Structures are given as structure tokens and as C-alpha cells.
């Protein structure tokens, strides 16, 4: 089992004059190796919050997140950071590339943090896979939106993580570029039997996954549509 959510809840505490805000409560989910799972839901339903909890970027109010049988809640900040670098790849809608680093430096960054002596070699191989070798020495401001997202995909995959998390990966791109990126992403995921969990409101993107779930009214349900 790659991912397990056990009775996961996230509730933002009350402040003066404001009641508690429950995002979701008692979520349970099991994801096996090689599965591709989409979580659909309207804006504000908690999709991105859920992804942040799975990535260990936020802490749940209660419940547990386990990746490869390791409970994220049992780790201190330093241990969690090391675990995340080696086991979790994340693709953000807004790319979140380092502006002062070139494409190859952005892709190699997770490996550099993990002290991998072959970081640059592996990054160059990934850039070849995603069709960006000619742009390896370009900075983010010199790349198009689609190229920036390709770099972000390469950065997420270069460590060969146990699970790849994608937050609206084509949401910041035009339709044509988004379609190209979704083909690239799913082809790469399939070629290495990667486990993928993506959140989106885009049903055509979600339909490419082997399983679809809907986050609605604080509950996670099978999407039967």
C-alpha cells in the first residue's frame, strides 16, 4: 500500500467572532502502487488542503497519513523533509520554480538536497524525456508556461518518488498546452508504473485516471459519473 488516509480531519480553529471551519472529517483512502487516482471537487471543497496534508506540508486536526507504511505525523520537521524529498513528488498549478535557477538546476534541486552525486546527470536525462534538453540552461522567465510546467514535472519525477501529487497541473495553461502536458504526464507515469494522485475540477483530465473520487461536503466519495 503506497498511501493510506485513516480518519483524516482538518478543521480550522475558531477566532474571535468566527466559528470553526471544518474542511473535511473522517476521510479514509487506500491507494495501491501504480494506481492513478483523481480527486474532483468544486473550488473551496478542500482538494488542495487534502493534497497539502498528504504531502506533509500541513498537519491534520486528527487522523493519520501513511506513505509506504510510514506515518507522517510521527516524524519531526527534519525527518519529514528528508522523507518528502525521497518519497513524494509534487506538481503545483503555479509551477513554483526557483527563478534564479536554470531548467536543469531546478530539476536537479531535489537530488542536490538529497546529496545525490549524480544529480546533474539524472536531471539532464529527465529533461531529455520531457523534450526540454535544448532549454536546459534557460531560466524560468525565458520559458513559456508549458515549458515551465514541464520543468516542474521533471523536478517532481527526477527522484523517482513513491507517489506523485499533482494540484491542478494544467489549470494555469491554455487548453492546447494543457492537453499536451496531460499526455506527457500520463505517459511518463505509465512508463515507470508511478502512483499518481491528482486534484482537479477538470473532468476530462480526471477521466484519464484509473479511479475517480469526489470531495464534497467534507466527504470523499466514489465518482460514478
Strand content: 25-35%
Total of DSSP H or I helical runs spanning 4+ residues: 7
Spatial strand sequence of the major β-sheet? 6-7-8-3-9-10
Query: Element order, helices and strands?
Result: EEEHEEHEHHHEHEHEE
Reported for the largest beta sheet, the result is: 6 strands, mixed
Mean of all residue-level pLDDT scores? 90
Overall shape: it is: globular
What is the number of beta strands? 10
Q: Provide the gyration radius in Å.
A: 18 Å
Helix/strand class:
alpha/beta
Residue stretches low in confidence (pLDDT < 50, at least 5 long) are none
Ends apart, CA distance between termini: 26 Å
**Roughly what percent helix?**
25-40%
Counting copies of identical and different chains, the oligomeric state is single chain
Architecture overview:
By secondary structure, the chain is α/β, with parallel strands linked by helices. Helix content is 33%, strand content 26%. β9 and β10 form a beta hairpin. α3 packs parallel to α5. It is globular, with a radius of gyration of 18 Å. The model has no long low-confidence stretch (mean pLDDT 90).
